[in-house]
Fold this protein.
Amino acid sequence: MYIIIPVVFIFVVFILPSIFTVKQQTAAIIERFGKFHSIRQSGLHFKVPILDKIVGRLSLKIQQLDVIVETKTLDDVFVKLKVSVQYNVIRNKVYDAFYKLDYPHEQITSYVFDVVRAEVPKMKLDDVFVKKDDIAIAVKSELNDAMVEYGYDIIKTLVTDIDPDAQVKAAMNRINAAEREKVAAQYEGDAQRILIVEKAKAEAESKRLQGQGIADQRREIARGLEESVDVLNRVGINSQEASALIVVTQHYDTLQSIGEETNSNLILLPNSPQAGSNMLNDMVASFTASNQIGEAMKKARNGANFIKDFFAGIRDIVGGRSGSYEKVLREAKETALKEMQENAKKIGANAIIGVDLDYETVGPNGGMLMVTASGTAVRV
């Protein structure tokens, strides 16, 4: 019993404190009498009681330090940059990392400030956003050269945030919004132009087809009228009377169509009961007068053809046309007017308006004179 107590005491006081463990990805620094003795990696280890002491443990994992730097750009815009530095302790340089550098975070932060404030003022604000990777590379290069001496390896540096002043961001957003509105307006204008062009093309095609349809309709109407005239001719009605009858029929069809529309504002003149009869008589008389006038003009031309201007070569001593030539002209004019008056009387007219006399030389070398009298026969 008395032997067990000293053994337990020795175990608790001397042996148990000499046993220690080191976690994975960790290094323990052992000193003996205040002087560096050894570095122990992960696992179970022993140290001399009382003589050896664990003075520190360093993590070998990758660590991250976020540094926020405020600086000014080339175009005098203050901006805040968040730089994330990923680093770790080099496994074979644990001694340098523990004994040469007391505050690694402050050391890394100082280098980040120095590099960022040296690089960003060379750039405009837009370039800072575009070239943020260049800033990160510059920070990593500067830190690597400085920290490797102290046993730290810079794995990567990232510019994770660029934060300009609030007013600057609002102005940038307005510029971006205005630019996008400009592009949107251009696209809307192009769309409107395309719609107008396509609408114009559709209207043109519609008008073309409509015109073609009207032309086909009129062609069929003309063909139908031609067939109607042929049918009427076979029952003893001449072409003029048939045409007048067809027009009058269409007149009554128009009246019927107007009567079917209750809300129509169309007024057809003349619309008296005897209007159809008067229209038929007037059209027959007009067709007859036109034929008579055509015949009269033809006779006037034929009558003037036999008047040979054999007096044209005879000249007075004074140098003018001969009196016989003037007589021929006067007689030809009177003959043309007289025949025109007789033809007008035959068709029931008692006046002629718009009388026009034309003189024309025809034949080889102008050797024949033609006198033409024309006018419109009316009844007043």
Notes: The longest strand covers residues 152-164. The first helix runs from residue 4 to 15. Residues 22 and 42 are 4 Å apart (CA to CA). The mean pLDDT is 77.
